[in-house]
Amino acid sequence: MANNVEITILYDIYGEMLTEKQRDFLNFYYNDDLSLAEIAENEGITRQGVRDAIKRAEAQLYDMEARLGFAKRNDEIEARIREIIDCADAINAYNLEHDLSREINETTVKIKSLALSVIE
Asked: Pick from 12, 24, 78, 99: CA 20 to 30 A from residue 40's CA?
């Protein structure tokens, strides 16, 4: 199952770099949940031909990620943004406990809101 999620993420990032037929096969297999036999029947090719095309497309997606690293970088950015959110929450909690500043409270809420808008 993890492989399916990984392929879906890589497809979202790099899918436009695949051929139309590769995109179709991956969509049929991963998004429409069609079997290799069903895709083969619909496309008029062998089941093995469909499997080979899907495996080649998956290999290309992994190769693009290995070369470009966009998915990894995206994960790293999301992790840092979540750390920013945690820090804003900690500042806000401290501020509320010590009745320090309304401006600090408003600013931490804004920081958290902006950070969440980037990752959601």
From this structure: 12
